[in-house]
């Protein structure tokens, strides 16, 4: 499939999910008791040692895919340590050699389940200056609402991580739902259509080449 023929999101959901508020409110008031997987604990411990030894800003690139966005963010924030996290070793293994750590920025790629990794980051008192969620899997079928990050039990930990959160998607409903979930958590923001000359992820490049629109929210999460 060429970049210019990237498929648009198809969903049986015409607007915000009818049970979104109910689901988010439940997760905001419940305790997340799922045990931490041993492999994610081990991956986190290795990365955490590097984070604790680093004196500069910390940036998270969650759902980083092949890590192209992580490398681009490291170049954009050259004084920071950027942590790219994805659950797929298959995607991370595609990280091109040209994106390996250089003097253009510092970054680490880690394979981990974000449902565990985010909780461990909160427990370790990580305080990222920025947190990017760029084109996560939208799970567009209505029945999969709780597989979207804002509809999942882990959502409160995204809020607890703080920092300047930026969420981008080519499906406006995803970003609008995320904004509504943040509002329920006491964090209000606007959703805007977004465009630029420079794509920082492979998906973004494909979507723009096929004429699709990007939507985003940017919010400075206060955790006091």
Automatic annotation (TrEMBL):
Catalytic activity, as annotated: guanosine(46) in tRNA + S-adenosyl-L-methionine = N(7)-methylguanosine(46) in tRNA + S-adenosyl-L-homocysteine
Entry keywords, A to Z: Methyltransferase, S-adenosyl-L-methionine, Transferase, tRNA processing
One annotated GO molecular function: tRNA (guanine(46)-N7)-methyltransferase activity
Gene Ontology cellular component terms for the protein in this record: tRNA methyltransferase complex
SUPFAM superfamilies attached to this UniProt entry: S-adenosyl-L-methionine-dependent methyltransferases
Enzyme Commission designation: 2.1.1.33
Presence of the UniProt keyword tRNA processing in the record: yes
Broad EC category: transferase
Function field: Catalyzes the formation of N(7)-methylguanine at position 46 (m7G46) in tRNA.
PANTHER family hit by this protein: 3-DEOXY-D-MANNO-OCTULOSONIC-ACID TRANSFERASE/TRNA GUANINE-N 7 - -METHYLTRANSFERASE (PTHR23417), PENTACOTRIPEPTIDE-REPEAT REGION OF PRORP DOMAIN-CONTAINING PROTEIN (PTHR23417:SF14)
Name of this chain's protein: tRNA (guanine(46)-N(7))-methyltransferase
Organism from which the protein derives: Pseudoalteromonas arctica
